[in-house]
Design a protein that fits this description.
homotetramer; 11 helices; seven-stranded parallel β-sheet; 10% strand
């Protein structure tokens, strides 16, 4: 990893490779890292999150996966962020200590979702005084479509140095427009290179070109969402795009259908991108 | 109105002026038109919509208001769009015929909301073949935060001439980024001039400046939303900003509190806009 | 109608008969009244409610239907309750005055559902002091599955004389258990006689028999709900059960499919009721 | 435990006693068992469920608690059901094997709630062929207010031997009416004796008396629900009713306020029960 480098741009929410019988398969993570860097130009990963089925894994499996990503990412990736959220606070703390010990770039935690805080707060409000409470706090993965809240977060951040990474891949351009620093998502596993071209167009700014990329990414996502799209389907797409066998998901998820895979592949190949590839 | 002029830019969703005892008060619409044009640089209005409490009015009242807006808007406004939606299809048809007869620029209808169509469709899907079914179809007021759907609509529209006007005022910049043509909303009654400056900055493109305007507009809306913000409160804000007495809302809505009005006024006056006003 | 008689037992939420081209068809209401009384042993009706598509009708049509029900129900029905709710409060008041003038037994209004009161109240809380505010208040059609709220309503009512009529037909027995006085629903149009047998069993009390009826009623409703069940389908069922042509629904509702009608008829005929019919 | 005895009547969803610093406190479970049997006449417990904060505990803690309940319940309780649900299927299987090994009466699992099955099924449909797939399947804790579904379950069960235990404590009487066999809930920890009197009244049947108990139980629950009622508050109530220190909840839950405890105690003591206690 690259110490001190600010987290921005694209972060791939990685899937967890599994063997056909449902065991985790860390042996292909080396190949996965090279693929992300070379084929997708993506140098940041988010490990053991929802896309990685983190909450369906045991604590031991999560540690093993985090170790392998940090190990294989050395000198190749800029950031390896490890998701350490768990329903048991003790387990979450154990995972956080482990991530620190192995040299992960950072940790992330999902907000409590079984027992929940009793009142909803806007993310903007949550930021008040957060540096005093969590000095290592670096930023937020913002996955809501309420962009007013995101805009107020970005606004509050003028003097501080938080990163706001957007998590609704199909409307990233809209979040960039109001000041998001980057994005965390599963689509950057296989559409990272195209999304990077969108980021470049936006930076110029060439909004017409940026919009064209966003349209085409949305075209694919809109298509697969209608077919039923989740982590299992992401694994199937990643397998045919990268050539790395990502394996089946864990129960209660079930493998993507052959029909889904055939249709998704045909759709993806049918798209004519502005860069001609 | 200006015949043939494409509907774009800002459309004020007008409130319905009422007398203190709750009768409609068309006598101030002349003044309202001049205020919108001169103070807010807004030349399009959306009459009898949600902001105008259209569904709380009788058919007769709705006709009277539409007539007054069309009459007063002559040679001053570009477009007077009349909302004709009603739970009774027969009443809706009657209002549509009336709007055509008085020379309104267009009509709009809310989708059925008591008895509802049995399956949800994306707006994008709804556009398929719509010109064959509704030859006069001009566009959509899009009020969802699902911007993937909006982006696909805009994309489908490349060769056709539909207008996509965005209806979530607090995140208009995000919708512009993916190609919205303009906006319909209640805030353009009193923040139309500032929003026009945002549109100009976006057109340059000067995204940093556009974002600054969006932040500040969001700052005000975020503040009043926390206080409880609806049609009654919009009438109160409009009354103190424009100086035109907009009166109370109809039941089941109740008048904004004095406390709300004091706080909202103080907040609006505290904002320092980039144009120095 | 029977003046002064307390409203209890079953109330049929009537459908509005229409001609094939979608006009209201009051000419069959006389036949409809005789059918309810003779075949279903139901002597109370709820007119122009949701089942009657009241909100899709014009004010004039609603008045005409109310008049016909009151006229035909004279000396045959105990109660003709007219639903007078409308989005426009003025229209609702006009309908209420009309209902009083023609001698309806009572009126009912839906709570505001477009512009809504800003906080949810339990029905129980709503009853506090309601007699002071609405001296003619007689009771509530309770259509929620939150039976704690209903139980507390019934409890509050010990000394007063409100009627609590339950509106979720498929779980009426559960509401009776905690003290509901009767029921308003669309199924009493065609399963009124069977439901009356359930009420009799409950009154004995013979809970095993009551449960048997509830099971079988639920068996039919569960079956048609899976097929897609609404007002249009209720009209189709009523047409084949009563032999009275109820016609199509108004848009946005569309006619039940032929397939639905065939399946629903077969299901209803397949049920073996404890009374042997 | 009592082998072979059918699970019916009341099952207390137990809280997990904790020390003031948040560690589990199995030392009071012996006292807890005696209290339930002697004071509440409740002989079945549901351990490590939602009320027991099972999902906030580590696997090791859950095993330790299950062991203590089985050990202390020997010859005193009829059934000790251990909840073994977890987000990780492997952990859930491990807990299930452990429960079998220590001699628990049965296990229960929550349906997957992070990654969810892709379509909602009615419980009734789930029962089809379940004995072939899960030969040891004994019944369902049914916690929905959709009593049509419960009724159809009970109906399907005529020849088979499943238990349907209802989980919405405030409307148990309604579920009994349509055939529930008993109930699982947190209120049976402190209102078990009163609820048992309701069950007896219902069995006679004396519905008027049963309803009186349900009203009063609902009166208390309705009161505390308005104050904000969850697992933390249940622990507070249990502490003052039983005299056994149940301790604080685990984060993200926080301790009940002193104000809550004072008000809840006063309310509970103010209720005049039909049995004069």
């Amino acid at each position: 990893m690259t110490p001190g480098k600010k987290l921005q741009g694209l972060v791939a929410a990685t899937v967890t490779p599994m063997t056909p019988d449902g065991q985790i398969n860390p042996s292909v993570i080396c190949q996965y890292v090279d693929y992300l860097v070379r084929e997708q130009n993506v140098r940041n990963v988010f490990v053991n999150g929802t896309t990685g089925e983190g909450l369906s894994l045991s604590v031991q499996e999560r540690k093993q996966l985090a170790e392998e990503w940090v190990h294989q990412g050395k000198d190749k990736l800029d950031h390896v962020v490890v998701h350490v959220g768990a329903l048991s606070l003790a387990e979450s703390q154990e995972l956080a200590r482990h991530a620190a010990a192995i040299g992960a770039s950072g940790i992330a935690v999902i907000a409590p979702f079984f027992f929940k805080p009793t009142h909803k707060v806007r993310v903007e409000e949550m930021l008040d005084g957060i540096k005093e409470q969590i000095p290592t706090f670096q930023g937020v993965k913002f996955s809501d479509t309420d962009l007013l809240d995101l805009a107020q977060c970005v606004n509050k951040n003028e003097r501080e140095q938080f990163a706001f990474l957007y998590g609704v891949d199909e409307q990233l351009l809209s979040a960039l427009a109001i000041g998001a620093d980057g994005a965390v998502g599963s689509t950057y596993n296989y559409l990272g290179q195209k999304t990077n071209l969108m980021l470049q167009a936006f930076a110029k700014p060439d909004l017409v070109l940026a919009r064209k990329y966003q349209f085409l990414i949305g075209e694919f996502l809109s298509f697969v969402i209608k077919l039923g799209f989740g982590v299992a389907q992401t694994k199937a797409v990643m397998t045919f795009v990268s050539g790395i066998p990502m394996g089946p998901p864990r129960l209660p998820l079930v493998d993507a259908s052959e029909e889904f895979t055939v249709k998704a592949k045909a759709k993806l190949e049918s798209i004519l991108w502005p860069d001609g590839h």
